[in-house]
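Re: that backbone. Tokens:
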């Protein structure tokens, strides 16, 4: 039971939920543009995206340094057993991913363009979790996840339906990428001390606090500035205005990080929940408007 709870936590359910949300966003853009939706492509693509992430997240834990804590395993024998389980489950999930890819190929759901993005998602997640790159421990994991969630996943979902690229996509994904990067950066703050202790090279450690906090603020402000100017490039305002409902959360997050920088005792659960809400609600509001229009 202990290992089951640990495996569930390592599978990152919240990340899987956010990935599902941005995947549905990409499909919603296709629907808004009048493209007939293929249910098989939608569901098989979604399951593929979720499974490849589960495998990558478990491999990221498997390849932790031997002296780092691993879930609730508190002695070498327990850690070894848990690592063995992680490797076995990762291999099983990757086998399912391969089988699902074959099913999609046989069903002619994978075209050259969608195949490229499937490959990009796979390569990015392997680079994130597996040596020698192992971006999760090199200070670039936050960039990888931001690109994955806000760019590759919604674009893949769109291309599985449309088999082409559309100029509306970057108007949605680029500001969303900035919000995603700010989100992953915030998640580094509560674990800063343990990351230093165990030599994990996160983006926050690379930047240091004095640089990370202004960068965080700049990412949030730049994202909303891009949303403001998006109608100039053809993004309809009627689809765009709901994202500004999250601005109070942005102001509160900037206020909290400013106080932390000034020495106020941090409330990490509130900070991380607020950061999740900014990215998640923005993606949800965009998804909702594309699906109901």
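Recovered sequence:
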């Amino acid at each position: 039971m202990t290992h089951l709870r640990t495996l569930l936590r390592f599978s990152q359910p919240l990340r899987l939920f956010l990935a599902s949300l941005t995947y549905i966003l990409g499909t919603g853009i296709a629907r808004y543009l009048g493209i007939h939706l293929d249910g098989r492509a939608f569901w098989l693509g979604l399951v593929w995206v979720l499974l490849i992430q589960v495998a990558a997240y478990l491999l990221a834990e498997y390849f932790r340094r031997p002296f780092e804590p691993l879930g609730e395993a508190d002695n070498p024998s327990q850690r070894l057993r848990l690592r063995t389980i992680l490797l076995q489950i990762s291999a099983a999930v990757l086998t399912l991913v391969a089988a699902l890819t074959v099913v999609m190929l046989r069903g002619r759901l994978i075209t050259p363009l969608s195949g490229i993005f499937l490959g990009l998602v796979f390569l990015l997640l392997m680079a994130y979790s597996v040596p020698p790159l192992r971006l999760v421990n090199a200070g670039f994991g936050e960039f990888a996840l931001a690109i994955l969630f806000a760019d590759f996943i919604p674009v893949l979902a769109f291309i599985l339906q449309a088999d082409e690229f559309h100029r509306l996509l970057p108007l949605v994904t680029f500001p969303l990428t900035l919000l995603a990067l700010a989100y992953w950066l915030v998640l580094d703050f509560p674990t800063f001390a343990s990351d230093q202790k165990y030599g994990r090279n996160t983006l926050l450690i690379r930047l240091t606090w004095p640089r990370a906090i202004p960068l965080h603020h700049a990412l949030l402000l730049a994202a909303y500035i891009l949303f403001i100017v998006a109608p100039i490039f053809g993004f309809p305002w009627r689809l765009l205005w709901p994202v500004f409902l999250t601005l109070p959360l942005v102001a509160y997050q900037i206020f909290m990080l400013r106080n932390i920088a000034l020495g106020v005792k941090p409330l990490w659960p509130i900070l991380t929940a607020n950061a999740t809400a900014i990215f998640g609600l923005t993606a949800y509001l965009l998804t909702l408007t594309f699906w109901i229009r």
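The chain has 13 helices and no strands. The mean pLDDT is 93.
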